[in-house]
Amino acid sequence: MSAISFIAVMMIGVIGANIIKEFFPQISETFILIGVGLILSFLPEFQNFELEPEFFMMLIIAPLMFYEGSKTSLKKVRKNFRGIFFLSITLAVVTVLLVAVLTNNIMGSWIFPLAICFAAIVTPTDAVAVKSIISGKKMPEGVNEAVEFESLFNDATGLVLLSLGLSVLESGHFSIWEGLGRFIFVSIGGIIIGLVVGALLVRIRTAINLRATRPEATIIPISILTPFFIYLLAEHFGTSGVYVLQEVSDDVQEVLETTGGSPLPTHFFAHYNDEEKLVSTFDPKFEVQAPGTARLEDGTIIGGVRHQVGRDKDVLRFRALVEFPAVLPNYMIKEHQLHLACEFGHWISAAIDDNNFKS
User: Fold this and answer.
1) DSSP E strands: which ranges in the chain?
2) What is the pTM of this model?
C-alpha cells in the first residue's frame, strides 16, 4: 500500500469514527478510533504492512502534538510545574522500570535493555487521547489540567529512556550521565526551538495580516506547514549522525558513531583482520577484503564487518557488510545501509578525485 492510499484509508476511518460518535456519544472517541482501526486492519492491503516511523512521526504525531501544545497556557504550566515534573518525569520513569521488569520476567527471551525499550514506547500517554478520554467527565479540580499537561511533557522522558535502551543494546554498557545529558538536550533544546520559531512565525503572520490584500492565501498554508517545519527542524538538530575514528594501533580503530540513526552514539573498537565469531564468509568474486570485529573496551564482541572490493572489467565492485546483534530493530539496519552508502561513496569519490586509483 502506498503512502497516499494509507492516508486516504486513515481519513475514511476518521470520518467513519466521527459518524459513529454521533450515535454513541457516551463512548470516548479514542475507543471508537481504536475499534475502527482494528476493523481496518483486516483489509487485505494491511497484511504485512509496515509504516515507516519517520512517516508516522512527521505526518501524524507532529500535527497532533503541535495542535495541543499551541492551546496550552504558559501561565498554567508555570502554576502546575511541580505536579507536571513529578508526573511526566518521576512517575514516567518508575512506570517504565516496573513495566520493563514485568516484561523481562514474562518474556523470558527478552534481555532487560530490550524490555526497557518496549516500556519506554508504551508508557508515555498521548495528549490527544488523554483529552478525548477525560472530556466531559467530572474530575476533581485541577486534575484535568494536570493530566493533560503531563501527557504533553512525558514524551521527552520516554524518548530519553528509549534512547538509553537502544544505546545499551548496541554498546553493552549504561551511562547515567549520558542519559541526563540527553534529557537536558531534548527538553531544553525543544523549548528553545519552539520559542525562537514560534516568535518568528508570529511576526511573519502579523506582518502578512497588516500588509497583504489577501492574507488568508498565505496564512493558511503557513499554518498547515508550521508543525511539519518545526518537527523537521528539531529532528535535524537532535539526530545528527556524527562519527569519529581514531587509530589505536595498526589493526585497531577507536570508533564513536551514531549507528543506524540511533539517538545516542556507540563507542567501540574495530579490530581488523580479526574474524572471531563472524557469520559472513569471503566471496571469491571479490579480490580484497577487510574483515574485523567490533568490540567493547573490555573485549566483548558486539558485531563485525567484512568489506570486500573487486574489479569486473572496468567496473569497481564494492560490498559493505556489517554484522549487527540479532536484537537490533530492522529500521536501524536500513538506516545504517544509507550511512554506509554515503560514507564509502564519499571515500571512493575522494580517492578518484585525488588520483589514488591505479588502472
Assistant:
1) 244-249, 252-257, 266-272, 288-295, 301-312, 315-319, 322-323
2) 0.47
